[in-house]
Amino acid sequence: MYHFELPYEECRRRRFERTYYPQHPEGYFDGHVWHAYVKAKKETFERFHDKKIVIVNTAEESFVKIEEKIVKDIEIALYKK
User: Fold this and answer.
1) How many angstroms separate the CA atoms of 44 and 10, rounded?
2) What is the count of structural domains for the chain?
3) Which Gene3D superfamilies does the record associate with it (predicted)?
């Protein structure tokens, strides 16, 4: 299982670089988007506390490297069976 970690500032920066139609109201990111991310993260770690969760820092690793790692993990898991 993977958790894709994104620090607040990086998430906010990426979010505000996008254009949304209709535009989101003032405070939407902090009041809803970030809150939902924090809540989902907490619930995931509580629900799957007994499972191995790989934390992937998407601010520090390129998507190509992340994809390569996940594909490699899947291949290893398939060959173990």
Assistant:
1) 21
2) 1
3) P-loop containing nucleotide triphosphate hydrolases
> What are 8-60's pLDDT values in tens digits?
999 999 999 998 888 888 899 999 999 999 999 999 999 998 988 888 888 88
Give this prediction's pTM: 0.72
Instruction: Say which DSSP state 33 is in.
Output: I
Question: Residue 33's domain spans which residues?
Answer: 2-80
Give, in order, the Cα–Cα distances in Å from 33 to each of 27, 63, 65, 71, 81: 9, 22, 26, 29, 39
Backbone angles phi, psi at 6, to 5 degrees: -140, 115
Query: How far is residue 40 from each of residues 10, 14, 20, 32, 79, measured CA to CA in Å?
Result: 18, 19, 22, 12, 31
CA 60 to chain CA centroid, Å, is 12
Give the tens place of pLDDT for each residue, 57-68: 888 888 899 999
